[in-house]
Design brief:
With about 190 residues, this protein is mainly alpha-helical.
Length: about 190
């Protein structure tokens, strides 16, 4: 039963996750955390790990959640084999809608790229994608990421503000910023 529920959830994520990984986060959280397959803390960790590993966040999170959800739903499914099956199913299912959309709709979009209707559709989608990305930022501004005590929250807000300023106003490579943030976090937390 858990596999059918995972397939249904990841089909929805695959079909409606327009705009990339960050735009998908609100949908992933709603589909995966709300039923209790993973905790909010695990979701936050998955987002962090998915960003550090190669590949899109939607696929990386599908692979991980597919692995842990069977065991979380039933102790009888705690074997690694059930997790691997869940990983394979979720990863394939989340990619299928995009594969078919690119395969079949890509030709149509290319042929009608100057169409007013198609331009209108994409003009309507852009602000929604920006809203979904902003939603992802708000989802990730939680106690698991910023701390639960006022001193930890203050340190986290300062670090986030400094990182944002460095990103916007300097040409420091993001990898260096990530490494520096890890070192600073290790020192002050």
């Amino acid at each position: 039963m858990i596999y059918l529920r995972l397939i249904w959830s990841y089909l929805k994520i695959g079909f409606f996750g327009f705009g990339g990984g960050y735009a998908m986060l609100a949908l992933i959280e709603n589909e995966i955390v709300t039923p209790g397959w993973i905790t909010q803390q695990m979701f936050t960790d998955i987002v962090a790990i998915s960003q550090m590993t190669p590949g899109p966040i939607g696929i990386n999170s599908a692979t991980y959640i597919g692995y842990v959800a069977p065991a979380a739903s039933s102790p009888a499914l705690a074997s690694p084999l059930f997790g691997i099956l869940g990983s394979l199913l979720c990863t394939i299912v989340v990619v299928l809608p995009s594969f078919f959309l690119v395969r079949y709709a890509g030709h149509y979009i290319q042929r009608h790229r100057d169409s007013a209707a198609l331009k209108g559709i994409f003009a309507g989608l852009r602000p929604v994608v920006i809203g979904l990305i902003a939603s992802a930022a708000l989802i990730l501004m939680n106690g698991e990421n910023f701390g639960h005590t006022p001193p930890d929250i203050a340190k986290s807000v300062v670090l986030a503000a400094v990182a944002l300023a460095i990103t916007l106003f300097t040409r420091i490579h993001p990898i260096l910023l990530i490494i520096a943030a890890g070192i600073i976090g290790w020192l002050i937390f």
